[in-house]
Task: structure prediction
Amino acid sequence: MKTKRFLKWYYIAPIVLVAVPLFLALMGEVVMRLWNGLLPPLFGWPQITRWQALGLLVLCRILFGGFGSGGSRHPKDMTPEERERFRRRMRERFRESVESPKADNDEAQRVRRDG
Result:
């Protein structure tokens, strides 16, 4: 059993050691070409190198992708009680954001009529 596991890693490790750097280089190249093809002509921003493109890719992953799941739960993994609590909180938040401008608008109309 241990021999099979060792042989499996013996073949997989070299593939991973080659595939991961190639994938990173490819992604860096894609980001670099997109940046250099779009942003300098549109906005006059400077062109970037491959290393800067990889850094930008890592920065975007940190800011927008996080590291792993981050503790967020998918709705299909929630219990019915958690799902209902989530929906109730979203309804309350949405109502507050919709009702606030309306209340401000009503007050502005009163001031115009009275003023």
